[in-house]
Automatic annotation (TrEMBL):
Keywords: Hydrolase, Manganese, Metal-binding, Methyltransferase, Nickel, S-adenosyl-L-methionine, Transferase
GO molecular function, one term: metal ion binding
Cofactors: Mn(2+); Ni(2+)
Organism expressing this protein natively: Sphaeramia orbicularis (orbiculate cardinalfish)
UniProt protein name: Sugar phosphate phosphatase
Damage-control phosphatase ARMT1-like metal-binding domain sequence ranges: 20-417
Enzyme Commission designation: 2.1.1.-, 3.1.3.-
Gene coding for it: armt1
Function, as annotated: Metal-dependent phosphatase that shows phosphatase activity against several substrates, including fructose-1-phosphate and fructose-6-phosphate. Its preference for fructose-1-phosphate, a strong glycating agent that causes DNA damage rather than a canonical yeast metabolite, suggests a damage-control function in hexose phosphate metabolism. Has also been shown to have O-methyltransferase activity that methylates glutamate residues of target proteins to form gamma-glutamyl methyl ester residues. Possibly methylates PCNA, suggesting it is involved in the DNA damage response.
Length: 441
């Protein structure tokens, strides 16, 4: 606990954390095992006998992992050769000290954030220990499929973007701010489409992402978009460096990534920003999170799309990347279990990177859990308090609610929602656009 605020954990029987560890995580592991098995002929046999053995060995490690999880065994140190092994194992020791020596850190007793992150790292370990298949992305099929299933919605979005691009230089401030608000909301609701909450089931965007904004508006519980807008505008005017930089900490591939790229394109082509840094994961994570491969693949698919506006957007994005206006970055910290308030001490280089941004957008639920430490905060606690000193730059969380953590609500707001809908915090139906300036309070 931090100041008596406990971490969400599966030890609270019946909680969403409990249901996730009990049901959703084993389902995801079973799908991973099945995927490796199904791809045996397609990918692994080219490595001959070694490939076949690797496939068998990885499956057996993953079945063992599923068994450890389901029987609440202690969390084990990692044994592969990735650069982050030491910091994971140190984290385990830190966690063990926090929990006291009576009981070992384990799946159902320890913080949910930690064990859930650990599961994805163990999947990676099972592959790394079997070199012929160590680069295989067990979630690739799902990500690719959800991309194609959202094509219609992407076309709508790209048509909107290309229509606006034509006369973007003539738009007034208020017209720009209107477009900004729309695209910020599109990027917000894009977060509904992750494949972790659905345990890998199809969860793609089927309706028009622009037309649905009005009807979705009442479900935005905290809306600080005007503060995000003023941050962008005031940075323009301050002329600090002459170049405005926005960092986007990405979440999911598929439709959500396209909404983020459309927003980034708008920021650049309107002149509101001059540089966008995207931050993604260095290995497959929480089923649908963006890796470098997904990022490149998505832009290539857009370019090759059989639709004029979609491919035009793709070509534009490829140019941004070539010219360095857009850049993709990954860092091991994003695939570790740490709360973001640990970043300054545990990943000072990454913290310094974010400090160079004028605005940082954090996409999605997991990032929100890490911003707030995944704790059982009172709903009315300030976002600033929950961040516990994490303020590298002005930042904004764009998140649909999929976990039992929410701060910064009005008195009574959370209680009202709870009395109407038991699962308002976990259904993905509600969302927040929550801002925090970089200033100490
Ligand atoms: O377990 C479901 C879940 O893992 C959430 O608890 C987690 O935070 C979320 O899915 C991932 O969502 P997102 O892709 O928005 O980070
Ligand atoms: Mg995700």
């Amino acid at each position: 606990t931090v100041h008596g605020v406990p971490s969400l954990s599966a030890k609270v029987v019946g909680s969403f954390a409990y249901l996730t560890v009990k049901d959703r995580l084993p389902t995801i592991l079973t799908k991973v095992i099945d995927t490796i098995h199904r791809n045996k002929n397609k990918f692994f046999e080219e490595f001959g006998e070694e490939g076949i053995q690797a496939e068998k060995a990885a499956i057996s490690l993953l079945s063992k992992l599923r068994n450890e999880l389901q029987t609440d065994k202690p969390v084990l140190p990692l044994t592969d050769d990735l650069e982050d092994v030491d910091s994971w194992n140190q984290y385990l020791q830190r966690q063990q000290r926090l929990e006291g020596d009576q009981e070992l850190v384990s799946w159902f007793k320890s913080p949910w954030l930690y064990v859930e992150c650990y599961m994805y790292r163990r999947i990676q370990e099972a592959l790394r220990l079997n070199p012929p298949i160590s680069d295989f992305d067990v979630f690739n099929e799902g990500k690719t499929q959800s991309f194609f299933e959202s094509q219609q919605a992407m076309i709508v979005l790209c048509t909107y973007l290309e229509g606006m691009r034509k006369n973007i230089k003539e738009l007034s401030k208020s017209q720009l701010s209107e477009h900004f608000n729309k695209l910020l909301q599109v990027a917000l609701w894009g977060n509904k489409c992750d494949l972790s909450i659905s345990a890998g089931q199809d969860n793609s965007q089927k309706v028009s992402p622009i037309d649905s904004l009005v009807s979705l508006k009442p479900f935005i519980l905290v809306d600080h978009s005007s503060m995000v807008w003023s941050t962008l505008i005031s940075t323009q005017n301050s002329g600090r460096t002459g170049s405005v930089r926005v960092d986007i900490v990405l979440d999911n591939a598929g439709f959500e990534l396209v909404t983020d790229l459309v927003l980034a394109d708008f920021l650049v082509s309107s002149g509101l920003a001059h540089e966008i840094h995207f931050h993604g994961k260095s290995f497959p994570w929480f089923v649908s999170d963006v890796t470098a491969k997904d990022f490149q693949w998505t832009i290539r698919q857009m370019m090759a799309a059989n639709h004029m506006w979609m491919s035009r957007s793709g070509v534009q994005w490829q140019n941004y990347v070539k010219e360095g206006v857009w850049s993709y970055h990954d860092h091991p910290f994003w695939t570790q279990p740490h709360e973001f308030c640990d970043m300054a001490a545990d990943a000072p280089d990454l913290y310094a990177t974010l400090q160079a941004a004028d605005l940082v957008l954090f996409k999605g639920d997991l990032n929100y859990r890490k911003l707030t430490g995944d704790r059982d905060w009172k709903y009315t606690v300030g976002f600033h308090t929950a961040l516990r000193g994490f303020r590298p730059a002005p930042l904004c969380s764009l998140r649909t609610l999929k976990a039992n953590v929410q701060v910064g609500l009005q008195p009574g707001q959370g209680e009202n929602l709870s009395s109407q809908e038991v699962d308002w915090m976990t259904s993905g139906k509600y969302a927040i656009i929550q801002f925090n300036s970089s200033l100490a309070e």
